[in-house]
Inverse folding.
């Protein structure tokens, strides 16, 4: 795996013709009825929940693998079930990779010095479990830079060593994100813009920039603010943008347009609008109780919507 | 456990006469020779490392339990060993609680909405593992507020429900922390000061404030900037400060003075200067190869130094 993460991702986007990331946010209460009922009739609560999540996610991965280049696992929904949940997280990453998918671990870790190195080891490095089996780790993880851009160094070092990638939180998609991230500095720019300018220097490291001019150090930029995307795109010309907020959080395909440069350099992420598409009348009316068909149709619709915007 | 976390912590500080937190940062390469050699002669690498960490930490907990009120587990050093490491993390939290210690989980999590709720469930709520055994979770965790103070709500809700606490990152102790956290806003204040002002409103919730006027919503403020501590103390009058950076990172007892109000309201955290005290000539010359005596002496010295400053 010597090819840079950025090149592997851009190749996979070209191959699938869809700059789309499916977010794996498995929530037991939201699972399609057949999956939920089968397992929640059991009386071994946490294990039943983990099994339900495992079964559901495995089926989702099989549906989306031919359609999209990459999936994003939300660590919190596995950590919620303690170490058994964490074991399921790593097993499902292996499943995704076996299906040819690239994987982002949405862990939003951030810490200093050797602590950051330990996080990078657990979440990005090649790993061997105590059972001496090789364990697949994500191709890229999300990281939180609040502690300072110096704290990204251990993550960058590990990313370089194992040809992995990072998506650094720059501007998130939640309603309250502006309070801290859009704070106006004396220089006139926002806090996120200043962060982006400094991140751009790290992303421009020639050892991280691939054959198409993009870097393995990407940025998380909420898809809910089109104007902000435009400004940050200029400040971070080499970073691939991971755009959450599509669908359930209200972002539309049109709002993501500014993230793309000649149709490249961004992946739009949707989680619940795809995973739980059977709750959407649009799909349930068409496919009745077949939740898997609903998932597939929701991905196909999203592909079409994004393709229209980037002219694919 | 209906008593508020803040009151339990302040009581324990009074009882042990030491506002000190011992940070559990177990790093195999740094372990005292006898512990390291015993386990690293084994050829089952990751399991041997986990066992070494488990053995070392258990012994440290026994030494410090009569001397300090609280310990802080650095999650990264356990996550590094995947789910087996995470299992050890929860087991050691149980060990610490059995010894009467309060426990902080240094996880620095932060995310939005139901994702934050899932993190709070895994790291703060009462938990039952798949084996149907009750699992001890930390009394408090560190959280990262970069995504917006609205994203703290699920953590605050869980803290209230289970009488737990939070330590919100406000100003960290690493060399590069100033770049983003001390950025000057148009209002003239720093980004951290603005964060502190908004956090103060959350911390002042009467349901979270205990009998001595302090809140269960604390703040992480690096002990390395005495002037910053002073300003943030004024902005966050109800928050107990967790002050990392003592010892190895260069902070002295004198530098922590401003965090205390009438000798109360802060805990000074030291990790490596205590855990690995045997590497300090001051202790090794006195106790030769007895690393446990070195740990004990380092805690006693730190107690004395802090007591001088707060007049205890």
């Amino acid at each position: 795996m010597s090819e840079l993460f950025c090149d592997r991702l851009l190749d996979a986007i070209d191959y699938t013709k869809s700059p789309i990331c499916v977010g794996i946010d498995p929530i037991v209460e939201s699972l399609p009825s057949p999956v939920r009922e089968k397992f929640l009739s059991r009386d071994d609560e946490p294990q039943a929940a983990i099994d339900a999540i495992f079964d559901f996610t495995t089926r989702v991965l099989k549906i989306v693998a031919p359609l999209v280049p990459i999936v994003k696992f939300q660590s919190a929904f596995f950590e919620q079930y303690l170490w058994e949940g964490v074991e399921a997280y790593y097993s499902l990453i292996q499943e995704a990779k076996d299906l040819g998918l690239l994987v982002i671990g949405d862990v939003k870790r951030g810490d200093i010095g050797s602590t950051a190195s330990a996080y990078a080891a657990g979440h990005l490095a090649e790993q061997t479990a105590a059972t001496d089996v090789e364990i697949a780790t994500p191709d890229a993880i999300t990281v939180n830079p609040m502690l300072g851009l110096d704290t990204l160094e251990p993550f960058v070092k590990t990313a370089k060593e194992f040809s992995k990638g990072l998506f650094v939180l720059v501007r998130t998609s939640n309603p309250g994100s502006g309070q801290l991230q859009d704070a106006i500095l004396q220089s006139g720019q926002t806090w996120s813009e200043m962060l982006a300018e400094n991140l751009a220097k790290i992303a421009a490291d020639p050892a991280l920039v691939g054959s198409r001019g993009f870097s393995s150090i990407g940025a998380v930029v909420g898809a809910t603010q089109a104007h902000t995307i435009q400004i940050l795109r200029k400040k971070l010309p080499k970073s691939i943008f991971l755009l959450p907020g599509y669908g359930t959080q209200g972002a539309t395909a049109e709002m993501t347009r500014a993230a793309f440069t000649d149709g490249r350099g961004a992946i739009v992420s949707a989680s619940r609008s795809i995973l739980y598409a059977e709750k959407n009348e649009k799909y349930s009316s068409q496919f009745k109780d077949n939740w898997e068909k609903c998932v597939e149709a929701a991905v196909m619709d999203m592909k079409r919507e994004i393709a229209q915007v980037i002219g694919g």
Observations:
- Residues 28 and 284 of chain B are 19 Å apart (CA to CA).
- Chain B touches chain A through 67 residues (CB under 8 Å).
- Residues 5-310 of chain B form a domain with the TIM Barrel fold (CATH 3.20.20.70).
- Residues 45-64 of chain B form the longest helix (20 residues).
